[in-house]
Amino acid sequence: MLGLETLPGLLRDAAERFGDHPAYVEDGVALSYADLLTRVDTVAASYVARGLAPGRVVALWAPNSTAWAVAALAVTWAGGVLVPLNSRYTALEVADVLDRTEAALVVVADGFLGRTQVADLVAVGTSAQVVDLADLVDGSADTTTEEDLAEARRRAEAVTPDDVADVLFTSGTTGRSKGAMSAHRQTIGVARAWAGLGGVRAEDRYLVVNPFFHSFGYKIGIVVGLVTGCTLHPVATFDVEAMMRLVQDERITVLPGAPTIFQSMLTADRSEVDLGSLRLAVTGAAVVPVVLIERMRSELGIDQVVTAFGMTEAVVVTMCRERDSAETVATTNGRAIPGMEVRIEEPTGEILVRGDHVMLGYLDDPEATAAAIDADGWLHTGDVGELDAAGNLRITDRLKDMYISGGFNVYPAEVEQVLARLNGVADVAVVGIPDERLGEVGKAYVVLSGADLSGDDVIAFAKERLANFKVPRQVELVDALPRNLSGKVLKTELRN
């Protein structure tokens, strides 16, 4: 009997509960929850026919699509372990992950962004069987038998809540990426907690801009759909004008995303689009500008804007609640979600988290696991923050981003929050750079939104609002900040 703490069980339950209700809509084509199960069942049998053994890895290298969701859910239905791969990876990067995970198969969206992924991967060399996503899902290369279907269903029944469901690789902003392992119960549990706090329901139309290869797109997208019965609208590449038209045309109600998504909406021309259907927006990053939350409410007109905090190793740790005040939402990342706890380690101020949704560990890397999770089960996040009396978390910075200027600790996030309030500043990042006299000083990289501002204007604004040692000594105006697909600013690139 399939239980609700495994992905195959959750999928079966969703098909029974939501039936003909649309699970996915892409380019005007809808796929119901019942048909989703049918397609997953067929693709899982195809994995079996291709030699996938229980517990082996299937990697998925593709952008967001309905086909991605089908291929991913079929992995666990066939008893395998899903490893999503960044759709912008090169073949060399993919081959490295395939080697490290000993993947049996890699499913590829050949031709995405005009590239030749399959040929590139074959040229690099891999022991994994390379499968084209389109051929896999449309059945054009299907050689499955009734025995393969029966075997896939037996494996789905045999999956347990404690089996590894997926391995998601960290963004690698501080070095070589690491694979965070999660059990079925964890992947489902965090999706259920997030959906409950956000009030997501079956009638919602959820635009998934967050990449499926990221936990925010996969667990807080695909799995939330299975939990709630909402309709997902996957978007392969981000284009703000196209996205806003989709919100209008499909009457999208739920839009989670990195802060850059909403910053792009605020700077775009919205005069010809109606965004009034949006009722819930969830954003999060190490630090979210307070002014962004205020503008999302006042200028985009989104009724419920909440912030959350998480990472690949724990997905969602804290989240604001529906009835939280505007000030709480704008200045904190909310309280610990059910099953999680947070504390601040002194004297560093580092945020430690513990609970049901903390990863099982890093794949084949016990040393890195021991360095991240201490003997008492606390995950050391590398973020600095504080808790208020109600338990709301306020993140002040990354430990590694702090710099010391003239003997004083400077947290760039504090400076960034101030500079974000200068009219005409669309985006900003501050890093510490070497200085012969003070050791380090701040340098601000500023993206303007059509305003006629100079570096001197930025520094003058900061001087009025910050202590002298916090004021950036240099300002560089840039077209855009370097970010990974999770929305994190790549400060290592700025320092270099």
Could you please describe the fold and organization of this structure?
This protein has 496 residues and is an alpha/beta fold. The protein folds into three domains: 7-14 and 33-175, 3-Layer(aba) Sandwich (Rossmann fold), CATH 3.40.50.980; 238-398, Rossmann fold, CATH 3.40.50; 402-495, ANL, C-terminal domain (GMP Synthetase, Chain A, domain 3), CATH 3.30.300.30. Helices cover 35% and strands 25% of the residues. The protein contains 17 helices and 25 strands. A hairpin with a 2-residue loop joins strand 21 (403-405) and strand 22. Helix 2 (33-49) crosses helix 7. The longest helix is centred in the N-terminal third of the chain and has 17 residues, at 33-49. It is globular and about 75 Å long.
